[in-house]
Amino acid sequence: MTHRRFVVEKAEIGLIGLAVMGSNLALNIAEKGNKIAVFNRTPEKTDEFYESAGDLKKQIIPCKTIEEFVDAIRPPRPIVIMIKAGEPVDQQMELLRPHLSKGDIMIDAGNANFRDTVARFDRLKNTDLTFIGMGVSGGEEGARHGPSIMVGGTEESWKRVEKVLTSIAARYNDEPCVAWLGNDGAGHFVKTIHNGIEYADMQMIAEIYGILRDGLGKSASEISGIFGEWNKGRLNSYLIEISEKVLAATDPVSGGPMVDMILDKAGQKGTGKWSAIEAQNMGIPATAIEAAVAARSLSSMKSQREAAEKIFGTQAVSFPIAYGPELNKDLELALFAAKIGAYAQGFAVMAEASREFNWSLPMPTIARIWRAGCIIRSQFLDEITSAFTKAPDAANLIVTPAFSDMVKESIPALRRVVGAAIAAGLPVPALTSALTYFDAYRQGRGTANLIQAQRDFFGAHGFDRLDGKDFHHGPWGSGASTF
Ligand code: NAP
Predict the structure, then answer these.
(1) Where does substrate bind (predicted)?
(2) What's the whole-model pTM score?
(3) What pLDDT does 371 receive?
């Protein structure tokens, strides 16, 4: 008599970390028909997760030990690590390593600094294991129903995970919002810049909200209505959509608008700051992102702001333009123009990083995978995809044929809005940064000739001449550096 052996089907992928992001990602993976093994440091959480998985239980192998977990996955094993970013990832990797075999891939899907990702990738370089740094955007909802996924690692390891990741990613016009973007830290770098742009986008919306609330006396529900209208036009995006919704929500405690009861101190976890730091490291201006990061820091200085308000008052004068259809249109266009500036800066930072780190980052693909699933998703990104596809070597988004026309149309409105806000004493740092970035970028003859002269005066740094003549120091006379 022959005995039939019961063979348990191996999981296609494994996942460690069953907190908010990991559990939602695991359910998404299971729901798309992929068998998944899961593990969490605290085993009770694995039980809780499995018990709440309902019909998806049949696709999930819950594991209590690392040995059991690794054994449950089909080699070469892709293992998603979705735990607290930083040191815990290194600790988890070290615990996993002795149990892995040739070709296995550890995938850090948390919000890692790309420099940590490069270091982790390098540590595994001369071993037979590999590493993927994977940026996942879209929060809890995205993880559960379709995030935007930015992958960095070897092409071979990408091939091993491509099918599963394609099945779980968000879709825009049926195209999956996932791509392999290059080696080692490419995915986490692009995710970082995504977050930097997100900071700028949110800050610019908040500044327009400030003009409407403090400059024009609009209520939260009126501003919600305005954003709702704008969401039907060129500003159509997730962030405008949720702004409309949050401004319309009622506080169950006071019965007034919810936003009016929320403390005006914005949190930050670091990715916006990393974007600004990396932009500075590479010498690429990302002024709108920097302004947004600084604005969050200033927002947290609540007691200092309150003390200063007592000394100086809030507004200098009332907003100089009356609200009506014309100003409404200007505000909408101003936000659009500033948004172009912020995205142009983010893409310029990525273009430079691509050169510096030898990643060959594909700009149209990045815009394409941000069209759905992530926080900055919008119709606008479809236009960026198309602009970079038609002009792949453009030095900057704003000089692509499609965007230069949009900039010409919208910059006058940004100038009017920023001018009026500044006259009224309303803070609009990100909008202003986008405007002055444009004004400086399109100025063929700038003012750095004076800076070069000053540098030569005090430090004998020398300068290049416009006429190309070989005479590189100024006739500064006494008081100038004698070097
Ligand atoms: P989290 O709160 O950042 O981390 C909790 C998870 O990490 C738990 O599973 C915990 O296990 C595990 N953990 C902590 N220290 C550990 C260690 N030393 N060794 C092993 N496991 C450890 O979880 P999350 O909010 O789901 O976020 C996960 C990652 O996704 C983070 O990098 C986060 O920045 C990123 N992310 C989050 C969001 C979001 O909206 N939340 C969006 C995008 C990206 P125990 O249960 O045993 O404590």
Answers:
(1) 111, 137-139, 194-195, 199, 269, 296, 455, 461
(2) 0.95
(3) 97
Distance CA 86, CA 97 (A): 17
Closest Cα to atom 11 of ligand 1: 41
Residues 373 and 452 in one domain: no
What CATH code is carried by the domain that includes residue 462? 1.20.5
Q: Ligand 1 center to residue 277 CA distance, Å?
A: 24
Q: Give the torsion through C-alpha atoms of 21, 27, 28, 30, to 10 deg.
A: 140
Q: Provide the domain limits for residue 471.
A: 448-482
Same domain, yes or no: 381 and 476: no
Mean predicted lDDT score pLDDT of the chain: 95
Question: 87 alpha carbon to ligand 1 midpoint, in Å?
Answer: 11
Longest dimension (CA), the chain: 108
What average pLDDT score do residues 230-258 get? 98
Share of residues in the chain with pLDDT > 70 (%): 98
Shared domain check, 453 and 436:
no
Q: Is 421 annotated as a binding residue?
A: no
Identify whether 191 is a catalytic site residue. yes
Sheet containing 60-62: give its strands across: 60-62, 36-39, 13-16, 78-81, 105-108, 130-137, 148-152, 178-182
Task: Report the nearest atom of ligand 1 relative to the CA of 140.
Answer: 40
The answer to whether the annotation marks 41 as part of a ligand binding site is yes
pLDDT at 200: 98
How many domains, the chain? 3
Share of the chain above pLDDT 90, in %: 93
Neighbours of 147 (CB within 10 A): 31
Same domain for 196 and 168: no
Pocket of ligand 1 (CB under 6 A): 17-22, 40-42, 45, 82-85, 88, 91-92, 110-111, 136, 139-140
Burial class (CB within 10 angstroms; exposed 0-12, middle 13-18, buried 19+) of 474: middle
CA distance to 135, 247, 316, 380, per residue, from 227 (Å): 29, 9, 26, 16
The answer for residues whose C-beta is within 8 angstroms of residue 168's C-beta and 6 or more apart is 25, 28, 29, 32, 34, 146, 147, 149
Atom of ligand 1 nearest to the CA of 21: 26
338 with 199, same domain?
yes
Phi, psi of 39 (to 5 degrees): -150, 145
| 198 is known as an active-site residue | yes
What is the CA(53)–ligand 1 centre distance, in A?
19
Atom of ligand 1 nearest to the CA of 23: 26
* Mean of pLDDT values over 21-35: 98
